[in-house]
Amino acid sequence: MKTRLMLSALLTLATAAGAAAEAQSRNQVRISQSGWANEIAARQDGSRQTVSITQRGNTHLAAVIQDGLRNTASVRQSGAGSTAIIDQLGRGGYAGVLQNGVNLSATSVQTGNGNIVGVAQIGSGHQAVTVQEGHYNALGVIQIGSGQSAHVTQIGSGNVRIVIQGGF
């Protein structure tokens, strides 16, 4: 419920700022949803930002907020009941989330330049929270099976971390 309220607030913020954000230089948003009760929000301030979101199944929620230059975010969700939140501040950042299954949650927050994060979750009941502060950090999380949880924070510059969890 707490997550749902936070996401509702993000969606409200992103929707209110949407028209002004897309007026910026060369920002792109591609959205594809199917099923029912899918929600989406994208807010971009700056220029040359890209968001691409695909949701299938039902009852998904995705929110992306980007501020800066040349940030890219991509969210793909299948199954049901998954949530993805991406917040990027800086330049040249990339955040990708691929979720497949049910009841999956991914939150990625990046501040700084040139940060990269990739999250892949297959199965059910996974949660991934990633935070990167600094420049040119790389982070990957792969979770397979059910009920895995990863909370990773990187502060500074030039950090690289990969988390792989599996099992059914």
Taking pLDDT < 50 over at least 5 consecutive residues as the criterion, the unreliable ranges are 1-7, 13-24
Structural class by helix and strand composition: mainly beta
- Work out the count of structural domains: 1
Order of strands side by side in the largest beta sheet? 1-3-5-7-9-11-13
- In this structure, how is the largest beta sheet organized? 7 strands, parallel
N-to-C span: 27 Å
The helix tally amounts to 1
Helix content: 10-25%
Q: What's the Cα radius of gyration?
A: 15 Å
Averaged pLDDT, please? Answer: 87
The total strand number stands at 13
Structural summary, described in words:
- This protein has 168 residues and is mostly beta strands.
- The chain has one domain (2-165).
- Helix content is 12%, strand content 59%.
- It is built from one helix and 13 strands, in the order αβββββββββββββ.
- It has a seven-stranded parallel beta sheet, with no helix packed on it. Strands 2-4-6-8-10-12 form a six-stranded parallel beta sheet.
- It is flat, with a radius of gyration of 15 Å.
- The two termini are 27 Å apart.
Give a quick precis of the structure:
The protein is mainly β. It has one helix and 13 strands, in the order H-E-E-E-E-E-E-E-E-E-E-E-E-E.
